[in-house]
Amino acid sequence: MLVQNLLKPERHKLCLVTKSEAVTFGDLYDRVCRMATQLRPYKKRPVLLIFHPDDAVGFTVAFYACLMTGAIAVPTPPTNYQTIQKDCEAAAIVTSWTMYFALFEWSTTFIIERCCGCCVSRAGLDDPEPDDIAFLQYTSGSTSSPRGVVISHKALEANIRWVTEQYLGNINDVVSVTWVPFYHDYGLTSILNINAVGGTLHYLSPLQFMKDPLSWIRRMSQVRATHTQAPNFAYGLCARHAALFPPKDIDLSCVRQFSMGGEIIRRKTMERFTTTFKVSMEQMDPSYGMAEMVCGIVHCQGGSGPLEMHGIVNVGTIGKNVEVRIMDDDEVWVRGESMMSGYYRRTNQEQYFGELEGKRWVRTGDLGFIHQGCLFIKGRKKDVIILNGRNIVSTDVEWIVEKAFPCLRPGSIAAVPIYEKEEEKLGLIAEVRDPKAVPSEKDIRYIVYKKMEVPVHRVLFVPKRTLPKTSSGKLQRFKCRQFFEE
User: Fold this and answer.
1) What domain range is 404 assigned to?
2) Fewest beta carbons within 10 Å, which of 160, 170, 190, 219?
3) Same domain as 238, residue 289
């Protein structure tokens, strides 16, 4: 059981550091045991874990306490939590005193995580069965409404075991810095992986990162980090900020692995980051994963094959932990020990799975190809726009426009299908940095047609922070289409 990983290092070794507190492995385990006594009545029942974005310690305690007691943990962002609460019929909300006063409702049962109290033994607690539900990871909702991915204890432990054995290495010297929200699968597993090898994790608030992206870079340099994790956009954002506000005395030579995931990865982003911060491409680790496989599926670092083909980045060598197949329509299918059991309380589950070679596979909804044993991801199947029988990937159009027009906000440009007279056409909507500096629609149509021979039917410009995004920062293109219907 993953909780036992907290007992492997010496009790006094530093485990988790945030802006407000630093806890050792011993302290964390004691708090988990205290929290577990409160969760005993909720075995096999969903409980929401809602904590302030700064409170990684409180969240981690609550998550491990759920694993210890068999309660079903549901990592939940503080905003719009009611949708998830209703969908999974949560029995209670686990939170802190600070969040309790913000969330309070008479009809809801609250359980408060306390950082102090008497030490409590876990005696009398039965270990959950391997196939019992460990947690529900709600999908980001980038292409549809969020769904609760069912992850068993067996699947979670298999994924953590693969990542730690394959990529983290020595138990004595791993130091990680991350700001990825802990209610997201990428952030959650970042915490669990570092705990599993007895490393020290420095957690930077995602709010702090968005306010000052270079605070992530400075922290890595200060604590001599060996590992970090973030989506592609974060590396590009830091490079752009460093060009405007050059940081002083930064040394990232200590970092062995800059893990990149969560969205389409661009080689130019890696090149800009490595050039700006004087690190090598060998330190960069493009990867691919999804909540339906706990998180990580493949990593590029230490693998084989070319870094890029046809403008698409190699996201990893396919290892023994997972099987990958490319279907006739280029959709990626995967299976392995980390595979989800299904979606919580959903009918018609079979639409999310496929049968092949007498086995059950997860249909990822991503398009890709395999070359020399490596996986290359092109984009989302639902983000494909069909124009006159030709498949156009939204991210290809968006990337061309982003590079050509710096006055548009990176990561805030959406190419979507729009329909007129039952015919599918291409629409493009973009956030502008400055309303006084807006490119002409004619120029945008010209550059897209020049690069891809694709006609853009309509172009819309909106103020910054207008386009709908998920809690992890991904564009919700299916919602962006609504702008063309207004």
Assistant:
1) 388-484
2) 170
3) yes
- Exposure on the CB side of residue 251, measured as CA atoms within 13 A: 6
Residue-by-residue DSSP string for 278-346: T--GGGEEEEEE-GGGSSEEEE-TT--S-SEETTEEEEEE--TTEEEEE-TT-EEEEEETT---EETT-
- Asked if residue 68 belongs to a domain, the reply is yes
Q: Which DSSP letter does residue 429 get?
A: E
pLDDT in tens, 409-422: 998 999 998 887 66
303 and 247 belong to one structural domain: yes
Report phi then psi at 122, rounded to 5: -90, 10
Do residue 367 and residue 416 come from a single domain?
no
User: For 203, phi and psi rounded to 5 degrees?
Assistant: -100, 120
267 inside domain: yes
pLDDT, tens only, 242-265: 999 999 999 999 999 999 998 889
User: How many structural domains compose the chain?
Assistant: 2
Name the residue type at position 369.
F
Question: pTM for the whole thing?
Answer: 0.85
pLDDT tens for 49-82 read 999 999 999 999 999 999 999 999 999 998 878 8
CATH number of the structural domain spanning residue 466: 3.30.300.30
* 350/392 same-domain check: no
Residue 229: both structure tokens together: 């994790």
What tokens does 93 get? Answer: 């909300």
Contact present, 333 and 325 (Cβ < 8 Å): yes
Query: In the chain, how many H helices and how many E strands?
Result: 13, 27
Instruction: Count Cβ atoms within 10 A of the Cβ of residue 224 and give its class: 0-12 exposed, 13-18 middle, 19 or more buried.
Output: middle
